[in-house]
Design brief:
Blueprint lengths: L27 H13 L6 H10 L1 H11 L5 E2 L19 E3 L1 H5 L8 E7 L4 E5 H17 L7 E5 L4 H12 L3 E5 L5 H11 L3 E5 L1 E4 L2 E4 L1 H10 L5 E5 L12 E3 H4 L11 E2 L3 E6 L9 E5 H15 L7 E4 L6 H7 L7 E6 L9 H8 L2 E6 L1 H9 L4 H4 L7 E4 L6 H10 L5 E4 L1 E3 L4 E5 L13 E2 L5 E4 L10 E6 L9 E2 L6 H8 L6 E9 L5 E6 L4 E3 L2 E3 L1 H8 L5 E6 L2 E2 L5 E2 L1 E6 L7 H14 L8 E4 L13 H8 L4 H4 L8 H5 L15 H4 L5
Parallel strand pairs: 3-16, 5-6, 5-7, 7-10, 10-11, 15-16, 15-17, 17-18, 18-19, 33-34
Antiparallel strand pairs: 1-2, 2-12, 3-4, 8-9, 13-14, 14-25, 20-21, 21-22, 23-24, 24-26, 26-27, 28-29, 30-33, 31-32
Helix pairs in contact: 1-3, 2-3, 5-6, 7-8, 13-15
């Protein structure tokens, strides 16, 4: 095992990356700023000025985004947005458009539109004409099956060309799309899809992971039985396993057999585009509905202006169809980029797999998780030395806060030319609140800027904006990609309670955030899993930033549990690297590192080795369910089995539940838990 550690300054004194002054390429956001000046007569000398204008003049900003990216709309509208407060704000009332039409308009017929890569290295390049032909063929087949605007089409599919075609074909006719990856068993997929009462199911025979083929045909059969509203099923042969011929089914080859130009229904700006689901860790997954126009505008802004994707750029972000980043990757088509779809493990056959894919396909933007970057550093990888990453401009990171150390590792081991763009957002808005921009320096451990059009603030408990203090992440003005509504929430009460219950008329996202004096953003973790020491709120991200970079530790999880007798217990659970054990010396090294690099208040009450940590299906640590187990809540009430990547890992934590009559872990139970 390589145990080299990158030396990270305790307090950054200068940026780790600065915009290149001698670049021969003008970023899209610079071109947009010039466009805004010509359009409005207002000059913006820097990003802060542009951002301030974008949140003060929402109508002017979003109209400029639409015009700059040549969004095509029909109908008559007089206003960009009405005066209704969140969450009932309406955008471009009277305008009609279609997301899929914009996704399929960019490239020349023979140019590459999509690249699909399997875990075994099989690579398929799809041209723009081939993509349009397949979308047109499938949309015609859907219409022949009686599918129309408002109907639901669902996909039980891996991250392949089939999923993209199925989504765009559905969107082209106004049908509402929803997808679920095949690591979900049938009951987990049905818990999501059955809410929608879909009329068509598109399902693959299986997928590949870590060198193994996973046969999902039996799960497809069970899923069909659980969806009584499905009238037709399309079987996708992805791993070459034969489906039985049954009434009401057809093969993918038959459904796309006759190439056709797609026909795009012109839909209201706020017509539903897709339904994404919450993780479902605390109950039935919530269906979150987003609209054609809002997604179109917001994704053009984020991808084109912040990630600086341009026509022909290769866009690789590791994801599955479960996660909102899949939707974001597909939206690369909106700005003319070429999505690179990878179906497989990010570390098979080795930890450098994603770097090798980025080099092979000349990726301009590569997106990974903080855990992946930390794993690469611990493995001693040298992507910048061993691979040609000269095309790579942006290294994106999302899913969890990115600590300072990986910023330095990217600079030193990937390349000083690569901008680290840590991003904070969510499935809720299928977009971002804060992220990178090519014209602003990058500070280690900090997200560079609030995104354009996002009125982002940190609120204290009284609802006052604070700077250089931890507060609740809030958005004080509407965004077009905010949900239209939740599925099966006719009066909107669940939607309002989820985001607007704490501060009326203000979106509260549920993250701890700091707006720094230099305009950057620091995310400290979920506010619903807050650590609290003697009345001082602490962020779990501060502890992970220290512990997860230590030699011999694979990952960690910290929770703070209020116990029945008024006591408070804050244990740190660690998963060790293979061949490593949590000895007393390692415990002391962990607590010493936390005390010196975070603060004495961050030192846990116990450091405990566990065999594995539970995560959501999108890789987020399950802090709140573990906390509830420690408080004595039964396993079946803290998380749905299908929402967890490893239910055995979650079940392991039941041994730490209260065992004393007081509801507090007994002395014997705690005896081996102290550092």
């Amino acid at each position: 095992m390589n145990t080299r550690q990158q030396q990270t300054p305790a307090t950054p004194t200068e940026p780790v990356w600065r915009p290149a002054l001698d670049s021969d390429r003008t970023p899209r956001i610079t071109r947009f700023t010039d466009f805004v000046t010509r359009r409005t007569g207002i000059t913006h000398p820097d990003y802060q000025s542009l951002w301030t204008w974008s949140i003060q003049d929402l109508a002017g900003f979003w109209a400029a985004v639409g015009e700059f990216f040549q969004v095509r709309a029909t109908g008559a509208w007089e206003r960009v947005l009405d005066d209704a407060p969140m969450p009932t704000t309406r955008w471009f009332p009277g305008a009609h458009l279609n997301y899929a039409e914009h996704a399929l308009r960019s490239g020349a017929a023979a140019d590459t539109a999509l690249i699909s890569v399997g875990e075994d290295g099989t690579t398929v390049l799809t041209t723009w004409q081939e993509l349009r032909d397949q979308v047109g063929a499938l949309s015609r087949w859907l219409r022949a099956e009686g599918v129309s605007a408002g109907d639901r089409v669902v996909g039980y599919l891996p991250n392949t060309l089939h999923a993209v075609v199925a989504f765009l074909a559905s969107a082209s006719i106004g049908a509402i799309w929803s997808a679920c990856a095949q690591d979900y068993a049938a009951p987990g997929a049905a818990a999501r899809f059955a809410q929608l009462e879909p009329v068509v199911l598109i399902a693959a025979d299986g997928y590949c992971w870590n060198g193994r083929t996973h046969d999902r045909r039996a799960e497809v059969q069970e899923l069909r039985r659980a969806l009584p509203t499905v009238r037709a099923t399309v079987h996708v042969s992805h791993v070459d396993l034969p489906f039985p011929e049954e009434p009401g089914t057809t093969s993918w080859q038959q459904a796309v057999a006759e190439p056709a130009e797609p026909v795009f229904e012109q839909l209201p700006f706020d017509a539903p585009l897709w339904v994404l689901f919450s993780s479902g860790t605390t109950g039935t997954p919530k269906g979150i509905v987003h609209g054609h126009g809002g997604v179109l505008l917001d994704h053009c802004k984020l991808l084109g202006l912040h990630l600086d994707l341009d026509e022909g750029d290769r866009f690789l972000w590791y994801t599955t169809t479960n996660w909102m980043m899949w939707n974001m990757v597909v939206s690369g088509l909106l700005v003319g980029a070429v999505p690179v779809l990878y179906d497989g493990s990010p570390t098979h056959p080795g930890p450098d797999r994603l770097w090798a894919l980025a080099a092979e396909h000349r990726a301009t933007v590569l997106g990974v998780s903080p855990g992946y970057l930390q794993g690469c550093a611990k493995a001693g990888l040298e992507p910048g030395r061993d691979l040609d990453l000269s095309a790579l401009r942006v290294l994106g990171s999302t899913g969890a806060p990115l600590p300072a150390q990986p910023y330095y590792w990217v600079r030193d081991h990937v390349g000083p030319h690569v901008q680290v763009a840590s991003t904070s957002g969510g499935t809720d808005i299928v977009s971002g609140f804060a992220g990178g921009v090519p014209t602003v320096p990058v500070w280690p451990g900090e997200i560079s800027v609030p995104l354009l059009g996002v009125a982002l603030k940190a609120y204290d408990a009284r609802g006052r904006a604070v700077t250089d203090e931890v507060g609740e992440l809030v958005v004080t003005r509407p965004m077009p990609s905010m949900p239209l509504h939740f599925w099966n929430d006719p009066d909107g009460s669940r939607y309002r309670q989820s985001y607007f219950g704490a501060f009326p008329g203000v979106w509260r996202h549920g993250d701890w955030m700091t707006r720094t004096h230099r305009g950057t953003v620091v995310i400290s973790g979920r506010s619903d899993s807050t650590l609290n020491r003697q009345g001082v709120r602490l962020g779990s991200a501060d502890i992970y930033a220290v512990v997860d970079t230590l030699p011999g530790i694979r990952e960690s999880l910290v929770v703070g549990a209020e116990l029945a007798d008024g006591d408070y217990w804050m244990p740190l659970f660690v998963v060790m690297e293979p061949g490593q054990r949590l000895t007393e010396d390692v415990r002391i090294a962990i607590t010493t590192a936390i005390r010196t690099k975070a603060s004495p208040r961050h030192v846990p009450d116990a450091v405990i080795e566990v065999p594995a940590l539970p995560h959501t299906r999108t890789g987020k640590k399950l802090e709140v369910p573990v906390k509830r187990l420690l408080q004595g809540v039964p396993l079946d009430r803290v998380a749905g089995r299908e929402a967890v990547d490893d239910i055995t890992a979650l079940r392991y934590f039941t041994r730490f539940a209260p065992v004393a009559p007081s509801g507090t872990p007994s002395a014997d139970a705690r005896s081996d838990r102290t550092p």
